[in-house]
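Human: I would love a firmer grasp of how sequence relates to backbone shape in proteins. Could you go through the record with me and say what the backbone is doing? Here is the record:
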Amino acid sequence: MPVRPRRLKSLALAVSTVLVALTAPALTATPAAATTTAYDSTYYKNAIGKTGASLKSSLNTIISSQTKLSYSAVWEALKVTDQDPDNSANVVLLYSGISRSKSLNGGNVGNWNREHVWAQSHGDFGTSAGPGTDLHHLRPEDVQVNSTRGNKDFDLGGSSFTNSGGSLTDANSFEPRNAVKGDVARMILYMAVRYEGTDGWPDLEPNDAVTNGSVPYHGRLSVLKQWNEQDPPDAFEERRNQLIYTTYQGNRNPFIDHPEWVEAIW
């Protein structure tokens, strides 16, 4: 019996569908949707509608108007910005997810200390007022976990470790737990926009390497972009951004307000 034209067309469509399914890359995250905030007509008004280098430059101008804290003042600030919403006596540790007493800040085993998400050595800015004390990338973390992370770039893969909370590490990279992957990405990219080498500090930039060491770069950009999309800002991150803006530094992390700006710039 001859195959009718309609049946041939259906067969061709079915074969085409199978071939596309076999060859198309798997989507790992949905691109961040465009957002609007109460600050778009005021704080961000000179950035709205821009993309690429123009957007990055506008955001740098906006967020560089900032009150700088001393490194000692960071201790008390973190007790407010990172307070456990379920226990006001505690802070939540970034990579571990552990809720720990605010009073246990220090440098001993069992304490929490000040983790520089953009590693200090990536630009050698230390703990001086400026990038070394910028709350937008400083978070509380267990002393030993902080040491395990060290100055490693961020990437996928590795093994678990004590108090990891689901975070992983290997010889040259660190992967934070799923719940804060986007937080880490947005903190790194905030630093890359805020510090452009024009105010006495290094020009911090993201790249796709995991061997940056002491140069003013942090990786891996391709993974950070993926994390920004997979883990959008949550209430904890948004509250933290607001507190830093209203109480401490007077500037905002634009990628918490507009996650889609990551793709617009990079």
